[in-house]
Amino acid sequence: MHPILRILGKGPGDGAERDGFVVTLWTYYEPATPREVPPADYADALQRLHAGMRELEVPTPLFTDRVEHAQRLVANREHTPALADADRELLGDTLRRLGRAIGERGGAGQLLHGEPHPGNVLTTGNGLLFVDLETCCRGPVEFDLAHAPAGVGAFYPGVDRDLLRECRVLVLAMITTWRWDRGDQLPNGRRLGAEWLDQIRAAVDRNDLNP
């Protein structure tokens, strides 16, 4: 089985179309007792996922497409009516500057999961498995690592530390934007959005944004 399919738990040829609907069958993996995942294990699983993804050639949007979507939300007061002017400027400037800087530094990159945060990781008897790949995009691996817990990057070989730091601020700005979308349904989303705005301001004060 192809490495990426084995990692994700989906076998080749499992999809079928019936009456206009695509039916996909997935391999069942026995769940293991939930535990806190050591950063080294998380990094190893993500590295194997990326290795498998490098072997795939599929049309995929760039990570900057997602950044641009967040920028459109910030610019549209109708969709983000509760966002204060100063916060709107902060988010817009952060998304614009880091999206451009990371795009220039990260090069073409590779196929990524897009959101490999702990909520998209399953602990099974076969090890860690990543799910929910509808956010796949192409970009630097540091963009994926920015979604993982803070200690994971230290165990991922060849990481550009400065690029990872910038990606973390960029991802924070993106998920903060989602929380201020009037259609957001995440519980306590607005409270999280306010907390994350404070974190972005702190990152700006520390000069974590590429000038």
Automatic annotation (TrEMBL):
Recorded hits in InterPro entries, A to Z, give:
Aminoglycoside_PTrfase, Kinase-like_dom_sf
Q: Where is the Aminoglycoside phosphotransferase domain?
A: 14-149
The source's superkingdom equals Bacteria
Per its UniProt record, what Pfam families does this chain match? APH
What SUPFAM superfamilies is this protein classified in?
Answer: Protein kinase-like (PK-like)
Keywords attached to this Swiss-Prot or TrEMBL record, sorted alphabetically, are:
Transferase
Molecular function as annotated in GO: transferase activity
This protein is called Phosphotransferase family enzyme
Task: Give the organism the record lists.
Answer: Pseudonocardia kunmingensis
